[in-house]
Amino acid sequence: MELGRVQETLLIPLRARAAETRRRRPLTSDPRSVEVAEALDRDLTRVGGRLTLLGPVFRGVVLDDWVREFLEEHPAGTVVEIGAGLNTRYERLDNGTATWVEIDLPDVIALRRELLAEHDRRRMVAGSAAEPEWAAAVAAAPGPYLFVSEAVLIYLTEDGARSAVDVIRDRFPGSVLLMDTVGSAEARRRRAVDVGWSCDDPGELAAWGLRLRDSRTLWDLPPRARARLTPGRRVLSALLDRASRGGGSRLSRFDVDGL
Ligand SMILES: C[S@@+](CC[C@H](N)C(=O)[O-])C[C@H]1O[C@@H](n2cnc3c(N)ncnc32)[C@H](O)[C@@H]1O
């Protein structure tokens, strides 16, 4: 199946999770992503260099930790994956009672449906995050809601990202949003891979109706995960953490409060 250029970016985190799972001491284990990567008729060795593959692994560990926390507090709540790609967070974290809604562009959802099973508590929705049509499928699922945008809204224009946040804020006030942002220094460095907007201070997204609760570089792992780092990765991530404090990527947790 042919995917669009932005949609193709899903191959990088997929390869990253599969490659990590095959390591002797993986930071996170995701056997389903290995199966999904193998089921695709693609040469994944062409996507992503060493650092490009490490970022999604660290990012996923931080976001998974926040999702796990939400599910501990709200075991029957709903996790909404904005721009799900071929992410297998459901396989990693589902607790048997939560509902999952996975949104992506139509070609990705068609592919996702071929590879991953949909059921009552796991719904897949084709549409753009920046348009309001997907909201009805989320409203049909039980609250409270946690939205996760992992390497998605950064590819939209700033207006597109804001439209997606507008839908979340208008339809689901009181929800929580987890999102990564790319700082201006990193956006300049990554211009070639279509980063659509940059943000040096996620606190400024208060103007979008998002109240910042937590923000960290993607190299700043929660203590439990940090303990699993190999010595080499511990040094590398400390260096990358320092380097990305001014103008790098950040992961943030927001309360969606309304304007
Ligand atoms: C880098 S991938 C990340 C996929 C997934 N979140 C993960 O971490 O594995 C970016 C994803 O965003 C999706 N995407 C891009 N623009 C979108 C939009 N307007 N609405 C919904 N999804 C979009 C792409 O199709 C792709 O699956």
Automatic annotation (TrEMBL):
GO terms for molecular function: methyltransferase activity. Keywords: Methyltransferase, Transferase. Pfam families: LCM. One of its GO terms (biological process) is methylation. InterPro entries: Ppm1/Ppm2/Tcmp, SAM-dependent_MTases_sf, TcmP-like. Gene3D superfamilies: Vaccinia Virus protein VP39. PANTHER family: S-ADENOSYL-L-METHIONINE-DEPENDENT METHYLTRANSFERASE YKTD-RELATED (PTHR43619), S-ADENOSYL-L-METHIONINE-DEPENDENT METHYLTRANSFERASES SUPERFAMILY PROTEIN (PTHR43619:SF2). This is O-Methyltransferase involved in polyketide biosynthesis. The lineage of its organism: Bacteria, Bacillati, Actinomycetota, Actinomycetes, Kitasatosporales.
